[in-house]
Amino acid sequence: MATYTKGNAMTICLRKIISTLSTSLHLVCNGNNHSTESSWDRSAEGG
């Protein structure tokens, strides 16, 4: 039980941090301008 709680807590914490970061990054990109976001999408696709 202790192992499960410890490992799970770390995983959940990491996932929360990652999702929060990606969400805020997305909001910042949307707020700045859409051309930047679309160019990121193109480069992500290998363009």
From TrEMBL:
Highest taxon of the lineage: Eukaryota
Protein name according to UniProt: Uncharacterized protein
Species annotation: Arundo donax (Giant reed)
